[in-house]
Amino acid sequence: MDPVAHTFTGMALAAAGLRRATPLAATALLMGVNAPDVDVVTAFGPQFEQLAFRRGWTHGVLALALWPFVLTGVLLAWDRYVRLRRKPDAAPARAGPLLALTALAVVSHPTLDWLNNYGLRWLMPFDSRWFYGDALFVIDPWFWLVVGGAAFLTFSRSKLARVRWTVFFALATVLIFASGEIVPRLSAILWLAGVGTLVIARWWLRGAPPVALERAAQAGIAVAAVYVVVMIGASAAARAEVRAAVTELGIAPEEVMVAPAPADPFSGEVVVVTRDEYYTGAFNWLMEPRLRLDGERIPRPRGAEYQLASQTPEARRFLVWSRYPTAEVEQRPNGSARVRFSDVRYEGTGRLLGPTTELAAGAVERASD
Asked: C-alpha distances in angstroms, 191 versus 4, 149, 157, 186?
């Protein structure tokens, strides 16, 4: 998920009482929940390198085993050579609790990333398969509201902190209302109501003892966990219903995806994969019929032009990430061709489009020879 969701998760865990486990506990949680995203540096690499590398090595099982030890070592070094020299009377950080906290925080990161349809490679570097939860949209305002709210109640005591939270909620509200038809109007209204509820709760708890704020944070984390579990179950149920519905229509599905829609837990974007084609559509629990397929069918990529174009470095990097690849081949009168790659998950949205490869006249014939 997005960095805001990860950071709020670390803050909420700290607010729930874990920050009292040892000095530097809150820092350990915040570092842990964001550490796997160090692979963002690949954005400065060659084209589509980020897609090929992200959510792999730094998110897989080997990294999950190593990150807690690396982070704990960094924190203990900071504690010994910086913090304690500045404050000789301060209590030293303890290695055991720091290791446990960083492990918890690090594991939370790929768990949240798995929830959306972008995917995650849990088994890297031993196995490069992608896994998809298809449960939450990559930016989920309800997760922000619940987990961020749990953090807000604790970490908003100073005037500067309140200014920061005000700026965040204001920008998030503008983003939601500026999304037009992407975010349902009812969802936007519920977001405003949720923000208002948090402001009232913050005023109500302004003089509450720390234990009351910890319980509020624990309640927020519990609500978020229930929400995630319900969405996972709803996604599985939706996939089963879509599979049954398309089978009745005479379509033989090899795979079905029902991806979450932005800010709407009742809707999903559908992709049905058959041997030769992709079917797209929409699913909504509150409508009848729940499944509505689009009229257009998208052919699965194959052919000599696709095979040749897919060997370029940019295409190989894109196809490492692509879940439902497509290739539009434009033949030209002079015998040359242009191949445009994309992914059905983002078809027609203008997001995460793949590379375009130019094939010279006679390139396919020469390759076959």
From this structure: 16, 12, 23, 9
Using the predicted structure, report yes or no on whether residue 221 has a pLDDT greater than 90: yes
% pLDDT > 70, the chain: 96
What residues contact 22, with CB distance under 8 A and at least 6 apart? 93, 94, 97, 98, 101
Residue 367 CB neighbours (<10 A): 13
pLDDT of residue 181: 74
Residue reference for tokens 């519920």: 190
- The pLDDT assigned to 350 comes to 47
Q: Match 């009848």 to its residue by tokens.
A: 288
Residues in the chain: 369
Can you tell me the mean pLDDT for 285-297? 91
Cα(157)–Cα(121) distance, integer angstroms? 39
For 299, phi then psi, to 5°, come to -70, 145
What pLDDT score was predicted for residue 219?
95
- CA–CA dist 144, 176 (Å, integer): 12
Rounded distance, CA 240 to CA 100, Å? Answer: 38
Give the closest residue to 357 by CA, choosing from 44, 52, 47, 45. 47
Average pLDDT over residues 140-163: 93
**Helix-strand-coil split of the chain, %, nearest 5:** 55, 15, 30
Distance CA 330, CA 71 (A): 50
Beta bridge partners of residue 331, listed in sequence order: 337
Spell out the long-range contacts of 362-366 with Cβ–Cβ below 8 A and sequence spacing 24 or more.
362/335, 363/308, 363/336, 363/337, 364/304, 364/305, 364/308, 364/337
Q: Sorting pLDDT into bands at 50, 70 and 90, what band is 368?
A: low
Q: Rounded to the nearest 5°, which phi and psi values hold at 27? A: -65, -40
Strands 356-359 and 325-331: unpaired
